[in-house]
Amino acid sequence: MKLYPAIDILGGNAVRLLKGDFDASTVYESDPLAAAMAWVAAGADRLHVVDLDGAKQGRPVNIEHLRRIAAESGVPVQFGGGLRRAAAVSQALEAGASRVILGTAALTDPDLVSQVMAGADPGQVAVAIDVREGRVATHGWLQTSDTRARETFAAMRERGVRDFIFTNIDHDGMLDGANREEVVWAARQAGEGTLIFSGGIGSLEHLRELARLKAEEGLDRLDGVIVGKALYERKFTVAEALAALG
């Protein structure tokens, strides 16, 4: 399984939220590039960058931070937050994103998803399905729709999406581990594609459990995990995480 250290950018800082609450953010690094370079120096071979300001405003705000991270880190960078127009997606790719992440657009403008998929290379587009109390959240997690995750997975598969990121917002930043049944369910919803899991990872044992689960349940589509707060708070190192994931 792949490890994606998370760099969430809010107000120009690398932060982490608690359960998606913008009023419960913790600043871990004043320069997102410094955070990115620290993870790479520690052994990370890919990064997960989210423009939280962009997610709130509906347009990319921190493209220059993306550009710096992509240019100087030397590793693939997947990027999301505010990508709700084709021009915004192009802007992110031109800035160096190896993969763009569509979230709100999956519900509000599914035709955009199809448009982006048609013009992208395989693996260049992922759809984020972020769930609060079983329903899909949008607009930077500030709004919760009436749509169930299962419906969104199915609709996106029909539009050709193969790569998904699944986050249980209720566990985000809580360091309480992943729910076994939820991981199995989400990985299988990816169909013939891949799934990156996010939310609640707080210990090496949580990572080992994901690796065991992948092997025991035959979850070939469970491709990676996003980790943020646990790395920032030194619950474990990047090297230890990679070893735990096998």
The domain tally reads: 1
The CATH superfamily title: Aldolase class I
Major beta sheet, specifics?
8 strands, parallel, barrel
Q: What's the overall average pLDDT, rounded? A: 94
Question: Would you give the CATH topology?
Answer: TIM Barrel
CATH architecture: Alpha-Beta Barrel
User: In whole angstroms, how far apart are the ends?
Assistant: 7 Å
How much of the sequence lies in strands comes to 25-35%
Backbone structural class:
alpha/beta
**β-strand number:** 12
Please give the radius of gyration in angstroms. Answer: 16 Å
Sequence stretches where pLDDT stays below 50 over 5 or more residues: none
Shape annotation? globular
Helix content: 25-40%
> Which CATH C-level class is it?
Alpha Beta
The side-by-side strand order for the widest beta sheet comes to: 1-4-5-6-7-10-11-12
- Count of DSSP-assigned helices: 11
**SSE order:** EEEHEHHEHEHHEEEHEHEHEHH
Features:
alpha/beta, TIM Barrel, 29% strand, globular
